[in-house]
Amino acid sequence: MTTSFKNRNLLAVIGDEDSITGLLLAGIGHINENQKKNFLVVDAKTQVSTIEAAFQDFTERKDIAILLINQHIAEKIRPTVDRYQQAFPALLEIPSKDHPYDPSKDSVLKRVQKLFGE
């Protein structure tokens, strides 16, 4: 068995201000020695390219176990999210205060349904 998951002990988050604030208060915030954060606050002014770049960065890092992303933000980069197939970091789409969770848009759920032929 491969040990590629051994040093993965961080959560990363791409989300709106309320989601990020709540998760930072819960203690997930981390800034490494290179001043790289494990979160990106997305607002109306955030460029799609910035979201894409953060997604790429978080999914390529070897210290992140789970990447949380607000579903309404995942929608902005849906092709990239749907292409992501790796086991680590695990990708979870989460609701936000203003945008309820829609299972029909969740890339992981769609993949599971395809696997079971539903």
Automatic annotation (TrEMBL):
<dbReference type="InterPro" id="IPR005772">
    <property type="entry name" value="ATPase_V1-cplx_fsu_euk"/>
</dbReference>
<keyword id="KW-0406">Ion transport</keyword>
<comment type="function">
    <text>Subunit of the V1 complex of vacuolar(H+)-ATPase (V-ATPase), a multisubunit enzyme composed of a peripheral complex (V1) that hydrolyzes ATP and a membrane integral complex (V0) that translocates protons. V-ATPase is responsible for acidifying and maintaining the pH of intracellular compartments.</text>
</comment>
<dbReference type="Pfam" id="PF01990">
    <property type="entry name" value="ATP-synt_F"/>
</dbReference>
<dbReference type="InterPro" id="IPR008218">
    <property type="entry name" value="ATPase_V1-cplx_f_g_su"/>
</dbReference>
<keyword id="KW-0472">Membrane</keyword>
<keyword id="KW-0813">Transport</keyword>
<keyword id="KW-0926">Vacuole</keyword>
<comment type="subunit">
    <text>V-ATPase is a heteromultimeric enzyme composed of a peripheral catalytic V1 complex (components A to H) attached to an integral membrane V0 proton pore complex (components: a, c, c', c'', d, e, f and VOA1).</text>
</comment>
<comment type="subunit">
    <text>V-ATPase is a heteromultimeric enzyme made up of two complexes: the ATP-hydrolytic V1 complex and the proton translocation V0 complex.</text>
</comment>
<dbReference type="InterPro" id="IPR036906">
    <property type="entry name" value="ATPase_V1_fsu_sf"/>
</dbReference>
<keyword id="KW-0375">Hydrogen ion transport</keyword>
<comment type="similarity">
    <text>Belongs to the V-ATPase F subunit family.</text>
</comment>
<dbReference type="GO" id="GO:0033180">
    <property type="term" value="C:proton-transporting V-type ATPase, V1 domain"/>
</dbReference>
<dbReference type="GO" id="GO:0046961">
    <property type="term" value="F:proton-transporting ATPase activity, rotational mechanism"/>
</dbReference>
<protein>
    <recommendedName>
        <fullName>V-type proton ATPase subunit F</fullName>
    </recommendedName>
</protein>
<dbReference type="GO" id="GO:0000329">
    <property type="term" value="C:fungal-type vacuole membrane"/>
</dbReference>
